[in-house]
Amino acid sequence: MDTNRRNFLKVAGISTLAGLGGTTIVNRLVAGVDEAHAAAPAGSGVERKTSETIRYGLVIDIKKFHQDPSLGEKAVNACHQIHNVPKFPEKRDEIKWIWMTNFENAFVESPNLYQDEANQTHQLPILCNHCDNPPCVRVCPTKATYRYEDGIVGMDYHRCIGCRFCMAACPYGSRSFNWRDPQAYIENINRDYPARTRGVVEKCNFCVERVQAGLQPACVEAVGDSKALVFGNLKDPHSEIRQILKEKQTIQRNPSLGTIPSVFYIV
Amino acid sequence: MFEKALKGNKYYWMWLAFLGFFIAVGVVSYLRQYFFGLSLTGMTRDVSWGIYIAQFTFLVGVAAGGVMLVLPYYIHNFKAFGRITILGEFLAIAALLMCMMFIMADLGQPLRALNVILHPTPHSMLFWDMCVLWGYLILNALCGWVILTAERKQVAPPKWIYFFVYLSIPFAISIHTVTAMLYCGLPGRHFWLSAIIAPRFLASAFAAGPALIVVMALILKRVANFDAGKEAIDKMVTIITYAAITNMFFLGMEFFVGYYSDIPGHKHSLQYLFFGLEHHGHVYNNLVPFMWGFVILFLVGIGLITHPYTRRKNDLWLGIGCASIFIAFWLDKGIGFVLAGFLPTPVHEIVEYYPNINEIFVTAGVWATGFFILTVLYKVALGVEHEVEA
């Protein structure tokens, strides 16, 4: 083969490769730019679509959980029952979606040497905050955890590779991992919600399967009319949750981190 | 060229058999973990990464350290490194393969690993880490092999390979930078959330990687009749000295920021690592011995590799000095750094991590596999050198 022919083939081959690969990359970049324009300012480069009319949120009234400690148990049990959350004999395997904890553990940015008695002796529920700017979604290498347009942060248990990057990234400790097969440790299996396999991460999903069917989340339903938990649309100025947020002072967990949680606490 | 690895004396085969034993134990332990789940490790929902990811982090550094031979030789034309750049490149290959094995061992669903490619996610640093690790592996395999083949034929390496050699230099920096970005971009993990992490990783890598190469070169001098040359060893020791001191300087800065500002979040993990962290009347300190081991081994190592007598007159002391630096930085990065970042937990509890015996066997198995690969690669490289000399 003479040099000219050889060089021609080289150039032709490389241009074809560049053409095939290059256009895909350019298309992807352009597509990314379009979505970035549509979305809210996202410094982390996470492309996302946000609904203009819906963002789900939850208000937790700590006082009501103090007054009636059984509410916490009801909410936790309802959630764990409906979502097939297993109960392992060993604490190190533990999986939890929503659980009761102390004020000082939930609000680590607000330490207080002279805390009020009620907060010292009573507990409050914590769960996934369904952040508007979720670090877990940012770090997931497979998009197995993602943000719905309505603000709920969901999990695809069939795509998760179990790298647990999201667990390191979550500043609230909201995520659990299936260190072993959970099937045998689910007390009453609910056939309407998938049980997980070992090796995947899971967490509270704001009952997205119920919310999208027009129901309230299981924990909210479980505390009944106590109004200890109020779920609703933060983008609707006339919703009950917005009325409460207007009237009462609320706080959020680790606000300085800029994750913009959707869960609010009335102290 | 692989046929070179098939001929060796009885010590060569005994060494491979010794490693083979640990590989076999590691494989069996991994199968147990694969079929039962990661519950066979010491990890929990609070300390969700353990020694697998810690080894991975350290070994990325060892792989990147090889660039400290490639850069002076190819950019500054430092001829004395000519004989040993191949040791750096082959060490990088073995270290990267260990990294990938540790990642696979850590995955809850290893069979889904390809999802990282099937659903590429540029905003995840893990995606980029995969890209640069594979890139660096391929570059080292390509450059090492092509240059060794040329040497065997006693011709100059083809010109095009230099493009890839030069490309491998920024890639070496990038693998450890991106690995640092896995940690230093996470909100709420104060110990990791520091801009000095990537520079510190690089500094400790540029000490630990060359330190291992010096140890290897001194061993090869005794067992394989291969002399790296006094000038090359001496230059590497200089590089190790500066890199090791830089790493300690960066660590010192972390201490200053934490303890002078007196902000609890900046102090907690350092306190836990070096002095023990008191929480509700109990002091948690299971990593303290490792961290003081790190400091003492560093001091011993730096003393041995800087004192003129131990540095130039006696290979044994020099070897012990470099091994001390290597082990010291392994304690720092291969144990302390990853585990301490998880404490205290986001809800301010302390849950200490203790590796499970099965996890330790898997870890030993991966290390043994890495050294097995390294031995075979070095055997090939030295076989070619000896053939050329003969």
From TrEMBL, chain B:
One of its GO terms (cellular component) is plasma membrane. Coiled coil: none annotated. The chain crosses the membrane at residues 12-31, 51-74, 86-105, 125-148, 160-183, 195-219, 239-260, 287-305, 317-340, 360-378. Pfam families: NrfD. It is found in: Cell membrane. Keywords: Cell membrane, Membrane, Transmembrane, Transmembrane helix. InterPro entries: DsrP-like (IPR054823), NrfD-like (IPR005614). It is a multi-pass membrane protein. Its main location: membrane. Belongs to the NrfD family. PANTHER family: POLYSULPHIDE REDUCTASE NRFD (PTHR43044:SF2), PTHR43044. This is Polysulfide reductase NrfD. The lineage of its organism: Bacteria, Pseudomonadati, Thermodesulfobacteriota, Desulfobulbia, Desulfobulbales. The gene is nrfD.
